[in-house]
Amino acid sequence: MTLSEVTGISGEAGDFRVSVKQNPRYIDMNRCIACGECAAKCPKKVDDEFNAGINKRRAAYIKYGQAVPLKYAIDAANCIYLARGKCRACEKFCPTDAIDFEDKEKNVDVNVGSVILAPGWSPFDPKGVDYLGCAESPDIVTSMEYERLLSASGPCMGHLKRPSDSREPKKIAWLQCVGSRNLNRCDNAYCSSVCCMYAIKQALVTAEHLEGDDLSQTVFYMDIRSHGKEFDRYFEKAQADGVNFVRARPHTIEPGKDGTGVTMRYTLDDGKVVVEDFDMAVLSVGLEASKDALSLADTFGIALDEFRFAQTSSFAPVASSREGVFVTGAFQAPKAIPRSVAEASAAAADAARLLTAAKGTLTRSKSYPREKDLAGQQPRVGVFVCSCGINIAGVVDVKEVVAYAEGLPHVVYAENNLFSCSADTQDLIAKRIEEHNLNRIVVAACTPRTHEPLFQDTLREAGLNAYLIEMANIRNQNAWVHQNAPEAATAKAKDQVRMAVAKAALDYPLARDAVPVTQKALVIGGGLAGMGAALNLADQGFEAVLLEKDARLGGNAWHLDTTPKGEPVRPMLEEMIQRTENHANIKVLKNAALKSATGSVGQFVSKIAVDGQTRAVTYGAAVLATGARESVPTEYGYGEDARILTHLEFDRKLREDAAQLGQAQSAVFIQCVGSREPNRPYCSRVCCTHTVKSAIHLKTLNPAMNVYVLYRDMRTYGLNEILYQKARDLGVIFIRYDVDQKPAVAIEGADLKVTVDDPIVQRPLKIDTDLLVLAAAIEPHASDELIALYKCGVNADGFLNEAHPKLRPVDMAVDGLFVAGLCNYPKPVDESIEQAKAAAARAATVLSQEAMQLDAIKSFVTDDCDGCALCLDVCPYRAIKLEEQATEGNGQVHKRIVTDKALCKGCGLCAATCPKGGVHVHGFTLDQLKAQVSAALVDVV
Amino acid sequence: MNTAIELEKAPTSRFKDKVMELLPEGGNLNACLTCGACAAGCPASGLENMDPRKLLRMAALGMDDELLSTDWCWMCSMCQRCIYVCPMQIDIPQLVFQIRKSHPRGERPKGIINSCDMALRNDTCSAMGATEEDWRFVVEDVADEVRESQAGFEDLQVPMDKSGATYFLNQNSREPVTEPDEMIPLWKILHLAGADWTYGSKGWAAENYCLFAADEENWEKIVRTKAKAVDDLGCKVWLNTE
Amino acid sequence: MYEFKVGRLARILGVHRNTVSNWIRSGRLDARPAPAKRYQIGEAALRRFCALNHIAEDRVLDHLTVLPEAAASLTPTVAARFSTTGREESMTQKTIGSVMVVGGGIAGIQATLDLADSGYFVYLVEKSAGIGGAMAQLDKTFPTNDCAM
């Protein structure tokens, strides 16, 4: 429901009534084909919010070229007709009569079981801050404006130009922490969590957009917070690639000498003042709460924190203060895309958990007509050449291609469409199939990755098998890359269509297999993440077997004292353990070890050794939550003195003998002990926050204690920054050290001394201390066994890998496997629980089906296979096995391969390798491929 | 200098802590992130190998000897550029002021102290020692010249001690003593605007060197003298040119 | 007797919440404070207000919470217990198999897909003309340099 807002809610969890106001679009979505004529003819210009206000759009507009839904809208506030009763130009020119000025606001009442709030964030607006210079210089832009300037779909079409004179900038500066970690000119004392990374990305991507060796990118920062998975490596790479990182904040950004560019003054550690000119400055603006946060909080009656982000607790990170209403994404707290995606799944898990009783009651499934029987029919191919607005037609002469297609063998019909993917074109295609008795379709348009499923659906609705379609990519592989050669592009488009037709003629109906799904889960690891996943799945009605190698559940959480938000961990942990052990749907196996894993998604089988016996379990999906551990420091005198502790040892002392800790007169914390070094080039993410929390605790026990923190970058990201501020306010002293000049620890008689150089006063400090706490790195458990069992992957640091860092952060590359907790990457309590819920939500999408439909593009074995087994090792998905089979009749045994349809992804490597023609891929048979090649070379050979 | 700074266990009261007790919210003096924005904009950065960031850092580390003996505290112009951009809004100017105060009066820069003492001598509050008679005379004399020689300003008035006037205008001593003609442009503006204003014969000097001298008692004394002069004339607005 | 929250009434009338607050303070809107930041106003007073300010009654009355008549004469705390605004104590334990997701950015979209794939009908409510949110504005994303779209 677009152009819609919630206006009210009543009821309770499980049964809410929500009123939604749908603002009028003034354009009939069933008729609009997104041709763009209304916008072209609309006289009213409006600042384009999508392009961060850099350029203008019209009152009749579409957000951007690939918007979903791909329909235009009229901005009522700016439309001349709607505001003043004049114009209506759009109506005159719309080819499908889609303009509807009679459209009205609609109010709809919807009955739902639960609600998820994901309204996002708003960028900090630096215009009111005079020393940032935005008002005086056009070459000072915000990061969002810069993204649009870099974007191929933005105002510069991807050719970066600086605003003042449209020249390519050569020297660009990024200023971090604009509108974050600042309580002087705004109220955003927190850290926005993402800006360090996005600035580094922008700096590196800029180099791709510009040419020349004289490029210079400089990032001015206070701390570089590259604390996520693989983030530190990216930071190191940026440094290696020549991006300058200067730890200094300029005072004022002034316009350059001739009104272009900027000039800034900054101070180095030693006090030297530098004045430097840049062609452009990018302000890394922070993430503020969504502009709708207050009104949503009011409407839904949920609590917000002082920064207007949703208030949540560490053990229920996506639950709002109102039962049945969940919060996720940047609204929950500022965060980057991977965590937003995982947290969204976590909210889905919690929302679903409440509604298990009603699962499946309101879902709709489509019904299709019976497939026509094509036996004995010759191929009758219909070709639909798409203009894609001007995307294709602007380069390729589509009319010529249509005319050409009509003359091809087997083609009985061809036409041109403005947008093949639009709803009305689908109806048109179905109609043509009827009219001309088409039984094969060729769509010459974009990449199959965008719309093939859509066209397959269209075929099914018209009574044809979904696999009787071929797509010729005349956009990505033609018009987009041959913009300067329209004649050659048109010729190439003809070639592409000819090839597609040749293949289509050999298409045959394919059936999708279904594998039955064992609607049970296996969870490996009984810490917070494992229990979290098991509990959510169990609450959703799925049986879960939870394996734990130790004698008790809980894992690392036993060693923690409180969360950063100050919540005691033990009580929550014990409650969670109790719920897990008593849950009807969870079977807990302790002192257990996984011995084998066979099968594939939907039907895994494993043997588990527990209490000296072996048990077999079947399950449809598994969650790996095997955790990690605190490493043992090999420096700073660890192990030589009882006063030197790791963080977990410190927490233990806090629990067992806080009074004794309070008697210390002095304490030193050293960060990054074993992290961010060549043998562990990653950040352990939790230590800076844990340190400031511990420092605050010490100061509370004994305000007179001298507390020092020795750090490389303080990574108290997100709302944890408030703890860092509190620690400083309490008098904790933070001293920065360089990895090349680490602090030195010496035991001199009864004294424990730490020496470190202070970069600001430029002198060594010698600290006499009673306590030394080391932030030991979190390291992964050895995962060789797991890898061998499941063929899953780990990254270079040994942590289990997800399928895609941004879009599939809890899925593993092996279908049916999901990952959560420390084993994936170091993280604090709330993120572990979040990820666990996310893994449960993702596993539930598999387990919710009784049978899983597989795609039909799979390998199949013919009688020509003679068991040479060359293909076995080639298959990346290990989907091929060699079997002995008895030949019918003569009792002889021969070898032949068998392919697993669930594991097979239809990549074709087996078919390409096989010298005997013994294995092929449906829909991409060698005959089809040969036909395509012949068609391609028809003028040459 | 590369000798190590010894940070001992026994809790010591640092100068910084004493200052924090005086300031609202402790002046945020603990909150420093060492970002350097203050030093980047400070006009005195680099003098005496010092800048606001370094100064505050020395205070944080308890380097009280060095902190209280650096001459840099007198090079700070109290312009407030540092706190203006500080993300934590740290009151460095106040720290500087308190450091100035910690110096015995006799050891503070002679020029500033002498000016403070001079201003205390009579009710004009002039740091250059200009007396009431000097002041009246130079104002009248210059005003006469304007009326005689400048076309269009024949009836320019420069009121002195006009009871009940809306604005009481003060004047830095430097103009009447060394560059009297520099007073004229502002008279003309007030005249053309039709403002109801006056000078005072008492408390007219705009400068207050006791402030810069960190002499709080006399700073207050001078301000009260000036305020009394304004109140005695019954003026509504004290127009301050400093 | 009707009960409302300032923000709610402001939205219904299309005015700033401070405006409603000022009306109450000035007496132009004859309402008295009730617990939990709510206000109560008699039906007659409300109709009077609508008439005086040329507001269609049904635009307002249909959207405010009606208190049971008996509650009007009870003390404010007791009356609040009978208030039906927001947190209804429903007698039936009905469970609806659908979810509303407010916000069509990357988080909203992911949550929607997961829920739909798990057997729940989802309403995805987006205030602008298309889904995608802020991520659609980004050029390329770390680490794969895929375009954010």
Please give a structural write-up:
The complex is a heterotrimer of chains A (941), B (242) and C (149). In chain A, 26% of the residues lie in helices and 25% in strands. Chain A is an alpha/beta fold and 941 residues long. Chain A has seven domains: 81 residues, Alpha-Beta Plaits (2-Layer Sandwich), CATH 3.30.70; 165 residues, 3-Layer(bba) Sandwich (FAD/NAD(P)-binding domain), CATH 3.50.50; 67 residues, no CATH class; 124 residues, Rossmann fold, CATH 3.40.50; 184 residues, 3-Layer(bba) Sandwich (FAD/NAD(P)-binding domain), CATH 3.50.50; 146 residues, FAD/NAD(P)-binding domain; 63 residues, Alpha-Beta Plaits (2-Layer Sandwich), CATH 3.30.70.20. In chain A, the strands form 16 sheets. Chain A has a five-stranded parallel beta sheet. Chain B has 242 residues and is mainly alpha-helical. Chain B folds into two domains: 89 residues, no CATH class; 130 residues, no CATH class. Chain B has twelve helices and four strands, in the order βααααααααβααβααβ. Chain B has a three-stranded parallel beta sheet with strand order 3-2-4, with no helix packed on it. In chain C, helix 1 packs across helix 2. The longest helix of chain C is centred in the C-terminal third of the chain and has 12 residues. Chain C folds into two domains: 81 residues, Orthogonal Bundle (Arc Repressor Mutant, subunit A); 50 residues, no CATH class. Chain C starts with a strand and ends with a strand. By secondary structure, chain C is α+β, with helices and mostly antiparallel strands. The chains are: A alpha/beta (941), B mainly alpha (242), C alpha+beta (149). Chains in contact: A-B, A-C. The interface between A and B is large, with 49 and 44 residues.
